[in-house]
Records
---
Amino acid sequence: MNAAQQIDRDAVSDRTQPLLKVRGLTKLYGPEKGCQDVSFELYPGEVLGIVGESGSGKSTLLSLLSGRCPPDSGVIDYRLADSHKSAGQWLDLYSASEAERRTLLRTEWGFVEQNPRDGLRMAVSAGANIGERLMAQGVRNYQALRAAGLDWLNQVEIDPARIDDLPRTFSGGMQQRLQIARNLVSGPRLVFMDEPTGGLDVSVQARLLDLMRGLVRELDLAVVIVTHDLAVARLLADRLMVMRRSHVVETGLTDQILDDPQHPYSQLLVSSVLQP
Amino acid sequence: MNAATQPRPQPQPQAPRDEAYNFAYLDEQTKRMIRRGLLKAVAIPGYQVPFGGREMPLPYGWGTGGMQLTAAILGAEDVLKVIDQGADDTTNAVSIRRFFARTAGVATTERTPEATIIQTRHRIPETPLHADQIMVYQVPIPEPLRFIEPSETETRTMHALNDYGVMHVKLYEDIATFGHIATAYAYPVTVDERYVMDPSPIPKFDNPKLDMSPALMLFGAGREKRLYAVPPFTRVTSLDFEDHPFEVQKWEHNCAICGSHDSFLDELILDDQGTQSFVCSDTDYCAQRVSQGRAAQ
Amino acid sequence: MYVAVKGGEQAIDNAHKLLAKQRRGDTSVAELGVEQIRQQLPLAVARVMTEGSLYDAELAALAIKQSAGDLVEAIFLLRAYRTTLTRFSASLPIDTSAMQLNRRLSATFKDVPGGQLLGPTFDYTHRLLDFTLLAEGEFPGPESQADAAVQDCPRVLGLLAKEGLIKEEQDTGASVADITREPLEYPASRAERLQALARGDEGFLLALGYSTQRGYGRNHPFAGEIRVGEVEVWIEPEELGFPISIGAIEVTECEMVNQFVGSATELPQFTRGYGLAFGHAERKAMGMALVDRSLRAGEYSEEIVSPAQQEEFVLAHCDNVEAAGFVSHLKLPHYVDFQAELELIRKLRTPSREQAQ
């Protein structure tokens, strides 16, 4: 539809324009299986949490948003970065070509899988994992790739001496941090995360959340994070969407929803967590 | 077409053709289909064109792709040379040369400059090729991305989208692990600054011979039913890093027969003590040098 | 001077002569006739015809004789011969519901219209070596009644379809590609997949089908119907404008009834897998039907997690002529590539040697 409306970038600053505009997004596998009629806007630097029980449609929604699976209906518009050759234009994700979507996914976007094995190349070293996006963008200098690898290991608190080690020799928490580094090396503006702390034990989770919170603020990332863990949502998300049986039942500021839920299902969700 | 520059024995005379089969075995419809594929391949250098590969009377993996290409382009006046590992007298080269001598009745030769078509497995001749020649390569796995991405659907998309970053991941990993790029043969190349191509399992020693060659290069993979081409005078660059450039093999030895110090050498083990000797892999090149040496004396 | 293992024409000729001698065996024993193979090894002939994609029992028997009983080699011989044949016409789809049945069974119903017909089968034999065969004892077999009344035998899955309980297969009317003439591209159509499976190696399909039963891509199969018998082949030449029968072929058909699927818009229905082979070849037809169904995972939005569900994996590796060729090519000389590897590994080992000093 409005795939390429030129916006007046001088008049409106980047921060006040949404990055992502989602309208009427629907994908159903069965009655109330999947997600339907989801609409929202996401602004630069904003963290949106999607919460709800298993089967509520969180993951389906994330697949649709991240360009992995076309919706039955609905539109996702993404505002291209200033560095892009069509800077500031809106890209209709599913009207765009596969080439455009893929380019987006390895440059301006990132995706952190729940299981780091799905998001890492397990058979190549940590350094190669971090360097892959840069190589895809045409970096052909080994020393430069090396330097980026060392820098990012530092940033995600992994000992740089482990740059040549295979991810399988890393702990679960380290693998997850490596996956984050591999995504952030290209300087994305928007990162999708699917239960990033899911498989980790509590102390490791805390450290990862702390790191993620720091990076999100420092790099001014917009994030869509799917989680069933309200503690994760409270720590990271600015805003929440509560999903149940394929519908968004409530949406609002994180504190507002967690402290004063309006929808009966949100109340149930919050109370079930708060009980000792 | 005979470009031999000095008096040497004439090509093997044409044997009578076996009339039980069509000229060069394949029927004319099939040859036309393959030629159409070849035209497309030449028009899009390095792009893998699917073709309706036929069952040949030789096993898959033994050169059926190369044979179909040769059959499709072979004319009665052509002079055919077939090499395997650089040698004309290896069993598979003999078998394929005989096949075409029998079904097409064409003249055959062992001498590179005299051939108009050279079908090869694993080598490019040392003697520089000229514009009247066509090289036909036998290809086992045409997809340079195959061992990184097993799915054909995905690799075709990667080619279409110029999505080749992962190729350099392998090279990066080699340098990180070994200090060098550790690919010795089937070393991937970029053709005409667009498609990444597997040059077939030639040693990387031969890769520079592909670049700006005056000869037409055709590649056929029978089992995988793909063909591709490098037209004459096309840029072919081997993948590398700025600070770790592509290099070819060098030997500390010279050929024990002709003394060559710049050809690809095969290592022979002479006795139980493991005594080594090195000789040219390109038997014709070696023989040429020996006869030139004698003439000079 | 050392001479590398380079064959030369004489060596090849000699190898061929030795092969002929090995095939013939002891000349004091009578030579095996092609007609004997055809008559007395019909199941081997059926397999060679099926995977060789050519219905010609005599040539299949010849191929078995020539290949000294190596069936993959015999299939290869038949395929290489088939390539050179001229195509006169494509037949109309065979109508297996009009089959002259030799055998028919359904595991899904106790009885079905037309009845169950056990026919010739190993199924209930005790696998005990029969030493009377060692003595070459003749066993004439029962008198068969050529005049038995031909009953109408509707296909079992057709009965389910009448109730709407099984997914109807839609004929899109699109022309069917010939995978022996055009390259298979992925994703393949079901027609192309079935062609590839029909040519596919019996052992490979059997193993994959088996893997689905053991949970790698489980699809809850029931043998809806297996039927073996003769069907007429019809062609419709353009110049005639009406179909004519050109003879009958023996085929084995298997239809599996598989787990049901439903969706937001459709009520649950059973699904099916299909297998067809030349001659009497039940194991092949059943393996094929199981794998056909598992390859339809995408169509039914099932999660693709197991080898038998992965189209590229199955279709790219099911052809035994391709597989045997590529494995056997390892016997060809590779010394140039190996030399390159030798040179490389020596180079890579150099620094560590220096460090050790």
Note: The mean pLDDT of chain A is 89.
---
Amino acid sequence: MSQCILVADDDREIVKAIAILLEKEGYRVLKAYNGLQALDLLASQTVHLIIIDVMMPKMDGLSAIMRIRQQKNLPIIVLSAKSEETDKVLGLSIGADDYVTKPYNAQELTARVRSHLRRYTSLGDIHAQSSHEIRNGRLCWNSDAHTLYADGEPVRLTATETRIIDLLMRNLGRIFPAEEIYRRVWGEEPYAPENTVMVHIRRIREKIELNPKEPEYLKVVWGIGYKMEKK
Amino acid sequence: MDTKWKKSKTAAGAAAFCLSWGLLLAVLAAAPGNLSILKEEGLAALTAQDYQKTRQFREWISGRLENYLSMATGGPVNQTVWYGGSQAFYPGGYLGYAAEVTAVYAEEATSVSTEIYEDETVVVEEETPAAYGHSGEEGQTPEGIYQYGGQPSADPDTAALYRRQAEQFHADSKEDKNLLYIIEYDGETVYTNAEGAGLTGGSSPSAPEGYNFLLTFDGEKVKIIKDGKETDVYGDGYYEEGDDWYVPGYRNFTADERASRARITLAAARTPLLYIKANYSGDGFTQSYSPLYWMAQNLAMARRQLAGWMGYGAAGLALLLPAFLLGRQRRQWFDKAGAAISRLWLEARLILACLALAALFSACMAAVTIFPGHRTALWAAGLALAVFLIRLTVSSLCHGRGAGQNSLTARLWRLFQTRQLKLTAEKQTLRRYALLLVLQLLQAGVLAAGLIDLASLLYLSDMFWLPAALFLAAAMAALTIRAAVKSRKNAVSLDRLTSQIAAIRTGELENLPALPPGSPLAEASENLNAIREGLHTALEEQMKSERMKVELVSNVSHDIKTPLTSIISYVDLLNQEKDLPDYIQDYIRILDSKSQRLKAMVQDVFEISKAASGQLPVEIKEIDLAKLLRQTLADMGEAIEASSLLLKTALPEEPVKIQADGQRLYRVFQNLIQNALQYSLEGSRIYLSLTVKENTAAAVIKNISRSELPADIDFTERFTRGDNSRTDGGSGLGLSIARSFTEACGGTFQVHTDADLFAVTVIFPLSGQKSAPKE
């Protein structure tokens, strides 16, 4: 049975466009045009994920999220034209799992939907983690198997990439200068490390980030170094 | 050797300068005396080396003739034996010192009153007759014709007195053989000192050997034979004031009838010998000298003195040349010496100079009294030293002008000033007034003292003046204190006002109490408050409008984004349709790129408006700018490689620590590099350099523009591009965003164009250094 996604936005065309996008991916889509409608649909149907706009008539997205969170634990992605940091923080703090700004990138949106659904449905597996596993948001690093899982799926990494990931996942949130990464991963005195490290970071991003242009995990700390964001 | 010569040259320059001026000044000082001698005797007489050609001699001989005529006719004796008239003959000088010198020799001559000494009229003879007078003047006829000759008195007592005088005069002068005389009356020889000397009187007079001056009076006219030649005595025959010979025989200066019966013959020695007559008897102790001897001596001395004077003058003038030629060296020498002594305090230098000058002056005075003959030379030496001292002092004063002057007072003043700078305006003013008050009180005291002094000078009673002066001083002091108190009030007001200004400056816009209405700066304070209120309103308005602007932009961007979302979504869906005709796919591609650009622009506009209104959140941390640039280059590596351009970098190996928001700064350099990639001439090079200078780091990106750069355009203005057609892909906001973000992080953003060269400089203060001082 295909998973059901509720899309709520007051702009019918946007809802339609997202529906087409997701249906192509094989999901079932429920359409709501305000907060109340969304709540009604949620009450009557089985929904696995919600994509919801903030500014809607009758009941806005944030109020709806608060209502939903009182009963359900399903993933909620906020889709809003408000792109400011404060809006994102607000949305995430009241219970949303993700925040995507309009105009959205189709690939990114579908990737996020996929990611959240996988984590939501494979919740049991994730709980059964071993002591050798380091979990960080969508990512999970098994240091024994030297395997990185993104949304439960193993990521194919080269040997160098694996060593970089090993270093960064073991030190979540710590900032590493390129020189240190070079020294520890390559085991050599660094020569022009910035380019080399950056190339690898970029390749890893392609593999683990939902939108490699706006990375969430593998981040550059400009003027200092690189880090794995702790989620 | 060379340096030694140079050194001695500079010293010689200084010496020549001082010496020449010393000589010239001394010559100038001695000029009146010497010129008066010159005027008195004339250059001819002085150069002739013949005392008989001097005016002094002529006057003295005339006087003697007058006396002898008087003695012959039984009149009063006019001329003193040794000293007489306005000219004094004394050992040691020509002019001036008569009274002093004579005083030495006639110290105990009680009969001679000191007042006579003071008048420089020296009378040695004790028995000065009551009728002592100038017969020449007395004999003046009412018609104004000169008459000559003594007036014999009809009174037998007076006649006896005259006779005694004549006897005395004869007795005193006859031993002095420098002048031989024969006085005859009615053919009888009355007085003579020429017995056996070879002088013959009468109608055919002749002088003995050694006497080259012979004067005969034949009762009517005077005849002078000098060196065997007869001298023209009368000239045009009329006597005028200033004529050489004051003797009878002129048409308007005749001898009286009695005088015409007298015959006088005088002979003066060519070389007078020293003759002293001491008088040990009587009341006084006097020694008399032969006037002719001293006349000759004085002449010689005067000549020497004059020659010396002229010589010194010539030497001074001659030295002017080397002094002038060595002017540069002299200045060097004095500059150096001045610099050396300018280490002393200015006051010390001045006091020392004054003391030295005073000492020099008194030393000169003493030396001149001891060696009167070398007066000019001594003064020249003294003045040369004085010139040296003054020049040295002046050059030391010039060495450090104004604040550079090493002066105790200035030091104290500066100390006072620097202390003052730390005080508030009020305290400064108060201090200054306190100082002023003290000074004024002192001034009042000095003035009072001066007034009292003046009063005593004017013989005014102290009983009146003392209280008056004290009252005046007290009144002035009271006024001063009153003024000071008022000034203090002003200072307090000023302080209040400055604190008010300071409060407004720091943004304290609450209502500050204005100064009370009575105070002198109340109006200024009120105006200031009005300005503050205006500022407050304006600021509020501005903040409100900024808020509204951001809100508006926020709303507008939201409202644009919603339809844009649909556009992008459907374009995306269209993109996924595979079996569309090619031309439709072309359209879709265009739609896709333009809608993406629109999306970027909306985001940019939003950010820039926030940055412009100062509401851009920044997270300032210490970052390494060199590393940030390397990271940015690495991040954009693909884009750079894809372009036809070459990027040349010059980044320092060591960290360049600055305080900034790395994320924002990344956007800055990303924009700048993108800009360079986008607008550079094909195949040209882009230069990126980072340099650290003093306490700033400057990153410079230079590229050659593909199109011609307009000269007068601000590239950081929003929507500005090199070409105005806007057909390329840029939003026109790249540089504007870069500038806004740079400034939001506390950096400076400069754009510089030179022909096709486009250069952007981003400057940040180094971390740990204070940002550039505000003033």
Note: The first helix of chain A runs from residue 12 to 24.
